[in-house]
Amino acid sequence: MTTPQQLLGNNGEIQAANFLKKIKKYKILEKNWRYKNGEIDIIAQDGPVTVFVEVRTRQKNALVQGYFSVTKKKKNALKPTIQAYITQNYLQFFRFDVVEITHNNDHFEIFHYENIPLFT
Q1: Whether the predicted pLDDT of 93 surpasses 90
Q2: This prediction's pTM
C-alpha cells in the first residue's frame, strides 16, 4: 500500500524529471537507479557532465527545507551508489545536485541547487 508521503515523493520526482528535461534541457538517463541498498533518484546528462540528482519534496510549511534535509548522513549513504555508477560507466565528469519541490495544495515550486559538495 502506498502512503500519502510516498505519493507526494513520487509526484515530486516526476515534477523534478520534467523540470530537468523540459526547462534545463538535460537528458534523463535513469530514474531510481539502484545499487545494493542505495538508490539515486535521477541520473541525467548536462552536456558532458553526468548529474546525480537527489529529489526532496516538502510541504510549503515544512520545518526543514528539502535542501537542508540532505544531511551528511544522507550524502554518505549515497556515495557508494554514485561511486558504483561512476565506475560502471567510466565517468570523468560528474556532479551532485539537489532538486527541491515545495508543495502547497496543487501548486509546486521547484528549486535547483547545482554542484553540491558530496565527496568532501
Answers
A1: yes
A2: 0.92
